[in-house]
Amino acid sequence: MNSKESCRSELRIAIRQLSDRCLYTASKWAAEQLMGIEQDPANFTPSNTRFQWGSSSIRRRFRTNEITSTPIAGVSYVSTPVMEEDDAVDGDFYLLAKSYFDCREYRRAAHVLRDQTGKKSVFLRCYALYLAGEKRKEEEVIELEGPLGKSDSVNRELVSLERELSTLRKNGSIDPFGLYLYGLVLKEKGSENVARTVLVESVNSYPWNWNAWSELQSLCTTIDTLNSLNLNNHWMKDFFLASAYQEIRMHSESLAKYEYLQGTFGYSNYIQAQIAKAQYSLREFQQVETIFEELLRNDPYRVEDMDMYSNVLYANECSSALSYLAHRVFMTDKYRPESCCIIGNYYSLKGQHEKSVMYFRRALKLNKNYLSAWTLMGHEYIEMKNTPAAVDAYRRAIDINPCDYRAWYGLGQAYEMMGMPFYALHYFRKSVFLQPNDSRLWISMAHCYECDQLRMLEEAIKCYRRAANCNDREAIALHQLAKLQYELGRPEEAAFYYKKDLERMEAEEREGPNMVEALLYLATYYKTQKRFEEAEVYCTRLLDFTGPEKETAKSLLRGMRTTQSGFPSMDVEHFSP
């Protein structure tokens, strides 16, 4: 059996097992990967699949090698034994409990299974108690603080669950699903090291539970922690590492892993979406937009991850496309946090910031831990000049994920607006530590160093240099470097950066005040250096503009001709940026 057939067989069994234990998110994920495996050509007909061979331009773009029949690239495969079920032990009780569970009657489900000893029943009883505790915790938060309030409420079932699951683990009478729940409980109680150990045991015993991998990933915030995990060499490990690399900002490594996985899961929408996320973090917006367009063609009712697509459309100011996307998700499922964020982005692009905030708040009422909504709401409050509200929103985002560079950057902007540059610098430094390849962050920090309260121009120059080396799309860094070097009395360095800025503007076919300024400085500089031929080239180009710079260029040309003819020149310094 080749690796594709092995993956397909394993996933089919896993989907049934995960659904039977009410782990529906993990079951859905597994089913999506099952559909992502290339169909067997012998069984392939257009009627039994929505994909066609070679139809995905994204797949062709990101695949590094063509698929061959054998050997199959793309997965690391080690056989894992299938779990034995214990349906015969407590089947009828389990069916009733599962029905209650599916109706969100968690305590009734746990009560039905109180005397059942099978591993599957023990897991469902404990899982039902855990969710009952979570439900009650959320109710207490709303009762005490409102839907977006902070509260010290805790899940009151955690202590008893930890005690029971710990005993089962010591006795060796716990299955991989019980280990997953035990790891979840330990994580909630703050015992992260033990939680990592338990979750590793769970995924090594049963690697198809994506929920367990996701919880394990949330406990791996550094590459050292990730490398310390003793994981079996199963193909699910590749999915885990790709996702973990993305979370710890190793975007290129994450992208390489997903491209590798496409060797087997070539039609996986999940992998395409994750590739889009990695490209988004690398600011390759054009490729991200193309991927999401393809995703929507394959899965027109998809809402998951579409808020990222809306961010790209917002950044590119694609108003009509964003309007269409907002209408589409509204008609599909308007009470999803992603839908609310997309609609919020649409109103923000239209300049209706109050309405935008309303939709971000609605997203948070649906899921108060939805990170993007807090960050985007903070941006809206910045636009509305409501800095206290912006600071609160950004801090809530950081509470959820301390590695979110956008929230740190937002805090820097807020404190800069409040005239507190030292605080702003602290937060900008946090943001560039987390996202060192984003030129916008370095430029913001440079602006902060330039402010009247600091005037730390050498530090600003260092920041602008970093920005220039990080593919400064806004073309700000080179121009600012030239101006600062001129201000510090370094004409040669200023000429160097003005020339580089001019070359970039020519390559991008841009004109404007910055081009005029660069041409004027270079003409003046080369005249001063008595390099008249080069100075004349820049002066001649200035003659094409209409404005005072044209007269200045004529004056410079007259001065140079006078100097070359042997008469003293009465010209004075013409340049002032």
TrEMBL record:
InterPro entries: APC8, TPR-like_helical_dom_sf, TPR_rpt. Residues 7-276 form the Cdc23 domain. GO terms for cellular component: anaphase-promoting complex. Signal peptide: none annotated. Keywords: Cell cycle, Cell division, Mitosis, Repeat, TPR repeat, Ubl conjugation pathway. The keyword Cell cycle applies. The keyword 4Fe-4S does not apply. SMART domains: TPR. It comes from the Eukaryota. TPR repeats lie at residues 337-370, 371-404, 405-438. This is Cdc23 domain-containing protein. One of its GO terms (biological process) is cell division.
